[in-house]
Description:
The structure is a single chain. This protein is mostly beta strands and 298 residues long. The chain has a domain at 10-43 and 133-297: PK beta-barrel domain-like (M1 Pyruvate Kinase, Domain 3, Beta Barrel), CATH 2.40.33. It contains 3 helices and 21 strands. Strands 1, 2, 12, 13, 14, 15, 16, 17 and 21 form a 9-stranded mixed β-sheet that branches. A hairpin with an 8-residue loop joins strand 1 (10-16) and strand 2 (25-26). The longest helix is centred in the middle third of the chain and has 13 residues, at 161-173. The model is unreliable at 265-279 (pLDDT under 50). This is MOSC domain-containing protein.
Amino acid sequence: MTVTDTGGLRLTGLRRYPVKSCRGEDLDVATVEPWGLTGDRRWMVVDPSGEAVTAREANRLVLITPSITDSGLLLSAPDIEDLDVDRPASGPLVEVKIWDDRLLARAADPVAGDWFSGVIGRSLRLVYLDDPRRRPVNPAYGAADDTVSLADAYPLLLATEESLTQLNTWIAEGPRSADGPLPMTRFRPNLIVRGEDAFAEDTWRRVRVGEVVFRVVKLCDRCVLTTIDPVTATRTKEPLVSLARHRRWDGKTWFAVNLVPEAPYGSGVPEAPYGAGVPEALYGSVRVGDQVEVLETR
Protein backbone atom coordinates (compact mmCIF):
# COMPACT_ATOMS: atom_id res chain seq x y z
CA MET A 1 0.00 0.00 0.00
CA THR A 2 1.28 3.49 -0.90
CA VAL A 3 0.87 6.10 1.81
CA THR A 4 0.12 9.66 0.69
CA ASP A 5 1.98 12.31 2.67
CA THR A 6 -0.79 14.28 4.38
CA GLY A 7 1.37 15.70 7.16
CA GLY A 8 2.01 14.41 10.66
CA LEU A 9 3.29 11.04 11.72
CA ARG A 10 2.02 8.08 9.71
CA LEU A 11 2.51 4.33 9.67
CA THR A 12 4.07 3.64 6.26
CA GLY A 13 5.10 0.00 6.64
CA LEU A 14 3.96 -3.08 8.53
CA ARG A 15 5.86 -6.38 8.64
CA ARG A 16 5.78 -9.66 10.48
CA TYR A 17 8.32 -12.47 10.57
CA PRO A 18 6.61 -15.88 10.90
CA VAL A 19 9.88 -17.75 11.57
CA LYS A 20 12.60 -16.11 13.61
CA SER A 21 15.51 -14.92 11.42
CA CYS A 22 13.76 -15.82 8.14
CA ARG A 23 12.24 -13.37 5.67
CA GLY A 24 9.28 -11.22 6.62
CA GLU A 25 5.88 -10.49 5.10
CA ASP A 26 4.58 -7.03 4.19
CA LEU A 27 1.06 -6.46 5.51
CA ASP A 28 -1.59 -3.80 5.03
CA VAL A 29 -3.27 -4.54 8.38
CA ALA A 30 -2.35 -6.63 11.42
CA THR A 31 -3.90 -7.52 14.74
CA VAL A 32 -1.87 -6.63 17.82
CA GLU A 33 -1.59 -9.18 20.62
CA PRO A 34 0.16 -8.72 23.99
CA TRP A 35 3.27 -10.51 22.65
CA GLY A 36 3.39 -8.89 19.19
CA LEU A 37 1.62 -8.92 15.85
CA THR A 38 -0.52 -11.97 15.13
CA GLY A 39 1.75 -14.61 13.63
CA ASP A 40 4.99 -12.78 14.32
CA ARG A 41 7.94 -14.99 15.36
CA ARG A 42 5.88 -17.87 16.68
CA TRP A 43 8.19 -20.39 14.95
CA MET A 44 11.92 -20.84 15.51
CA VAL A 45 14.75 -23.03 14.26
CA VAL A 46 16.78 -24.78 16.97
CA ASP A 47 19.75 -27.12 17.09
CA PRO A 48 19.49 -30.69 18.46
CA SER A 49 19.97 -29.38 22.02
CA GLY A 50 17.05 -26.93 21.65
CA GLU A 51 19.14 -23.75 21.42
CA ALA A 52 17.92 -21.07 19.01
CA VAL A 53 19.71 -20.89 15.67
CA THR A 54 19.54 -17.45 14.06
CA ALA A 55 20.88 -15.79 10.93
CA ARG A 56 23.72 -14.38 13.00
CA GLU A 57 25.50 -17.70 12.58
CA ALA A 58 23.33 -19.36 9.91
CA ASN A 59 23.24 -16.53 7.36
CA ARG A 60 21.19 -18.48 4.79
CA LEU A 61 18.12 -18.33 7.04
CA VAL A 62 17.45 -14.89 5.53
CA LEU A 63 16.88 -16.58 2.14
CA ILE A 64 13.95 -18.64 3.47
CA THR A 65 10.46 -17.24 2.87
CA PRO A 66 7.80 -18.51 5.29
CA SER A 67 4.14 -17.71 4.58
CA ILE A 68 1.40 -18.25 7.14
CA THR A 69 -1.38 -20.56 5.97
CA ASP A 70 -4.63 -21.70 7.59
CA SER A 71 -2.95 -24.89 8.77
CA GLY A 72 0.56 -23.62 9.53
CA LEU A 73 3.37 -22.52 7.22
CA LEU A 74 4.47 -22.71 3.62
CA LEU A 75 8.27 -22.67 3.41
CA SER A 76 10.17 -21.60 0.28
CA ALA A 77 13.89 -21.25 -0.44
CA PRO A 78 16.21 -21.30 -3.47
CA ASP A 79 17.07 -24.69 -5.00
CA ILE A 80 14.73 -26.75 -2.82
CA GLU A 81 11.10 -27.81 -3.14
CA ASP A 82 8.51 -25.86 -1.12
CA LEU A 83 7.22 -27.48 2.07
CA ASP A 84 3.88 -27.23 3.86
CA VAL A 85 4.19 -27.53 7.64
CA ASP A 86 1.21 -28.12 9.92
CA ARG A 87 0.96 -26.08 13.09
CA PRO A 88 1.47 -28.65 15.90
CA ALA A 89 -1.68 -28.60 18.01
CA SER A 90 -0.50 -31.46 20.19
CA GLY A 91 2.50 -33.68 20.44
CA PRO A 92 5.68 -33.30 22.45
CA LEU A 93 6.66 -30.13 24.27
CA VAL A 94 10.41 -29.62 24.13
CA GLU A 95 12.62 -27.26 26.09
CA VAL A 96 14.18 -24.54 23.96
CA LYS A 97 16.65 -21.80 24.79
CA ILE A 98 16.63 -18.31 23.34
CA TRP A 99 19.37 -16.14 24.80
CA ASP A 100 18.96 -16.49 28.59
CA ASP A 101 15.36 -17.72 28.42
CA ARG A 102 14.39 -21.36 28.69
CA LEU A 103 10.80 -22.31 27.86
CA LEU A 104 8.65 -25.02 26.32
CA ALA A 105 7.57 -25.10 22.67
CA ARG A 106 5.86 -27.65 20.42
CA ALA A 107 8.07 -29.73 18.17
CA ALA A 108 7.03 -29.47 14.51
CA ASP A 109 7.04 -32.42 12.12
CA PRO A 110 10.63 -33.74 11.83
CA VAL A 111 10.30 -33.36 8.05
CA ALA A 112 10.42 -29.58 8.63
CA GLY A 113 13.68 -29.94 10.52
CA ASP A 114 15.11 -31.99 7.68
CA TRP A 115 14.05 -29.29 5.21
CA PHE A 116 15.83 -26.56 7.18
CA SER A 117 18.86 -28.82 7.59
CA GLY A 118 19.04 -29.18 3.82
CA VAL A 119 19.01 -25.40 3.33
CA ILE A 120 21.46 -24.53 6.10
CA GLY A 121 23.73 -27.58 6.00
CA ARG A 122 23.54 -28.65 9.64
CA SER A 123 21.17 -30.62 11.86
CA LEU A 124 18.17 -28.48 12.80
CA ARG A 125 14.64 -28.72 14.17
CA LEU A 126 11.61 -26.45 13.85
CA VAL A 127 9.50 -25.55 16.89
CA TYR A 128 6.29 -23.58 17.42
CA LEU A 129 5.46 -21.46 20.46
CA ASP A 130 1.87 -22.51 21.04
CA ASP A 131 1.49 -20.41 24.19
CA PRO A 132 3.44 -17.09 24.19
CA ARG A 133 2.43 -16.45 27.79
CA ARG A 134 5.31 -18.72 28.76
CA ARG A 135 7.95 -16.08 28.02
CA PRO A 136 8.13 -12.79 29.99
CA VAL A 137 10.10 -9.80 28.79
CA ASN A 138 13.18 -8.55 30.61
CA PRO A 139 11.83 -7.28 33.96
CA ALA A 140 14.42 -4.47 33.92
CA TYR A 141 12.34 -2.72 31.23
CA GLY A 142 8.92 -4.40 31.12
CA ALA A 143 6.03 -4.80 33.53
CA ALA A 144 5.46 -8.00 35.48
CA ASP A 145 2.81 -9.33 33.08
CA ASP A 146 4.50 -8.32 29.78
CA THR A 147 5.17 -11.29 27.51
CA VAL A 148 6.93 -11.80 24.19
CA SER A 149 6.88 -14.42 21.46
CA LEU A 150 10.19 -15.64 20.00
CA ALA A 151 11.40 -12.15 19.08
CA ASP A 152 14.77 -11.25 20.54
CA ALA A 153 13.44 -9.38 23.55
CA TYR A 154 10.21 -7.38 23.14
CA PRO A 155 6.88 -7.71 21.29
CA LEU A 156 7.41 -5.13 18.52
CA LEU A 157 10.13 -3.00 16.94
CA LEU A 158 9.49 0.45 15.46
CA ALA A 159 11.81 2.33 13.12
CA THR A 160 11.44 5.63 11.26
CA GLU A 161 12.20 6.42 7.64
CA GLU A 162 13.99 9.63 8.62
CA SER A 163 16.43 7.77 10.88
CA LEU A 164 17.26 5.36 8.07
CA THR A 165 17.79 8.29 5.68
CA GLN A 166 20.21 9.87 8.16
CA LEU A 167 22.03 6.58 8.64
CA ASN A 168 22.37 6.12 4.88
CA THR A 169 23.78 9.66 4.65
CA TRP A 170 26.42 8.75 7.23
CA ILE A 171 27.24 5.57 5.30
CA ALA A 172 27.61 7.54 2.04
CA GLU A 173 30.02 9.94 3.77
CA GLY A 174 32.05 7.20 5.46
CA PRO A 175 34.78 4.73 4.51
CA ARG A 176 32.30 1.95 3.62
CA SER A 177 30.11 3.96 1.25
CA ALA A 178 29.94 1.04 -1.20
CA ASP A 179 27.90 -0.88 1.38
CA GLY A 180 25.00 1.58 1.15
CA PRO A 181 22.34 2.63 0.90
CA LEU A 182 20.71 0.02 3.11
CA PRO A 183 17.02 -0.95 3.00
CA MET A 184 14.83 -0.94 6.08
CA THR A 185 14.66 -4.75 5.91
CA ARG A 186 18.19 -4.87 7.38
CA PHE A 187 16.69 -3.84 10.72
CA ARG A 188 13.61 -6.12 10.73
CA PRO A 189 11.09 -3.68 12.24
CA ASN A 190 7.38 -4.46 12.60
CA LEU A 191 6.25 -0.83 12.35
CA ILE A 192 7.76 1.76 10.01
CA VAL A 193 6.86 5.41 10.60
CA ARG A 194 7.40 8.64 8.66
CA GLY A 195 6.95 12.28 9.62
CA GLU A 196 9.46 13.27 12.34
CA ASP A 197 13.08 14.32 12.66
CA ALA A 198 15.70 11.59 12.51
CA PHE A 199 15.99 9.72 15.81
CA ALA A 200 13.12 11.63 17.41
CA GLU A 201 11.89 8.17 18.46
CA ASP A 202 14.74 8.06 21.00
CA THR A 203 12.67 10.37 23.20
CA TRP A 204 9.27 8.69 22.84
CA ARG A 205 7.74 7.03 25.89
CA ARG A 206 4.19 6.20 24.76
CA VAL A 207 2.71 6.30 21.25
CA ARG A 208 -0.62 5.54 19.67
CA VAL A 209 -0.64 3.85 16.27
CA GLY A 210 -4.17 3.76 14.91
CA GLU A 211 -6.28 2.26 17.69
CA VAL A 212 -3.44 0.74 19.72
CA VAL A 213 -1.27 2.38 22.39
CA PHE A 214 2.30 1.20 22.91
CA ARG A 215 4.90 1.78 25.60
CA VAL A 216 8.37 2.50 24.25
CA VAL A 217 10.40 0.46 26.71
CA LYS A 218 13.94 0.93 25.38
CA LEU A 219 16.07 1.67 22.35
CA CYS A 220 17.20 -1.35 20.34
CA ASP A 221 20.89 -2.25 20.45
CA ARG A 222 22.05 -3.67 17.12
CA CYS A 223 24.16 -6.70 16.30
CA VAL A 224 25.81 -8.43 13.33
CA LEU A 225 22.41 -9.54 11.99
CA THR A 226 22.07 -6.04 10.48
CA THR A 227 25.20 -6.65 8.39
CA ILE A 228 23.60 -9.56 6.48
CA ASP A 229 22.10 -8.66 3.11
CA PRO A 230 18.53 -10.06 3.23
CA VAL A 231 18.53 -10.67 -0.54
CA THR A 232 21.89 -12.44 -0.95
CA ALA A 233 22.84 -13.51 2.61
CA THR A 234 26.28 -11.92 2.09
CA ARG A 235 27.92 -9.86 4.86
CA THR A 236 28.95 -6.20 4.83
CA LYS A 237 30.55 -3.92 7.42
CA GLU A 238 27.66 -1.49 7.47
CA PRO A 239 25.54 -0.39 9.23
CA LEU A 240 27.62 -1.13 12.32
CA VAL A 241 30.59 0.98 11.18
CA SER A 242 28.48 4.14 10.87
CA LEU A 243 26.37 3.37 13.92
CA ALA A 244 29.58 2.99 15.92
CA ARG A 245 30.71 6.44 14.73
CA HIS A 246 27.43 8.24 15.43
CA ARG A 247 25.18 6.09 17.65
CA ARG A 248 27.41 4.33 20.15
CA TRP A 249 27.05 4.56 23.90
CA ASP A 250 27.01 2.10 26.82
CA GLY A 251 29.25 -0.11 24.70
CA LYS A 252 26.51 -0.73 22.10
CA THR A 253 25.13 0.73 18.87
CA TRP A 254 21.48 1.79 18.61
CA PHE A 255 18.79 1.96 15.94
CA ALA A 256 14.96 1.74 16.34
CA VAL A 257 12.91 1.29 19.52
CA ASN A 258 11.22 -1.62 21.29
CA LEU A 259 7.50 -1.51 22.03
CA VAL A 260 5.06 -3.25 24.37
CA PRO A 261 1.35 -2.89 23.49
CA GLU A 262 -1.27 -1.62 25.89
CA ALA A 263 -5.02 -2.18 25.75
CA PRO A 264 -6.66 0.16 23.18
CA TYR A 265 -7.52 3.52 24.69
CA GLY A 266 -7.15 2.05 28.18
CA SER A 267 -10.25 -0.15 27.73
CA GLY A 268 -10.68 -3.73 28.81
CA VAL A 269 -9.05 -6.43 26.73
CA PRO A 270 -11.37 -8.93 25.02
CA GLU A 271 -10.38 -12.57 24.69
CA ALA A 272 -10.90 -14.84 21.71
CA PRO A 273 -9.78 -18.37 20.79
CA TYR A 274 -6.48 -18.66 18.95
CA GLY A 275 -4.41 -21.39 17.36
CA ALA A 276 -4.30 -24.48 19.54
CA GLY A 277 -6.81 -23.18 22.06
CA VAL A 278 -4.72 -20.49 23.74
CA PRO A 279 -6.88 -17.58 24.96
CA GLU A 280 -5.90 -14.59 22.88
CA ALA A 281 -6.04 -11.00 24.10
CA LEU A 282 -6.62 -8.80 21.06
CA TYR A 283 -5.44 -5.23 21.54
CA GLY A 284 -6.82 -3.88 18.27
CA SER A 285 -5.44 -3.51 14.77
CA VAL A 286 -2.88 -1.31 13.05
CA ARG A 287 -3.05 -0.40 9.36
CA VAL A 288 -0.64 1.12 6.90
CA GLY A 289 -1.63 4.78 6.68
CA ASP A 290 -2.69 5.01 10.34
CA GLN A 291 -1.94 8.23 12.17
CA VAL A 292 0.80 7.95 14.79
CA GLU A 293 0.52 10.14 17.88
CA VAL A 294 3.28 10.64 20.43
CA LEU A 295 1.48 10.62 23.78
CA GLU A 296 4.45 11.00 26.11
CA THR A 297 8.17 11.71 25.76
CA ARG A 298 11.05 10.98 28.09
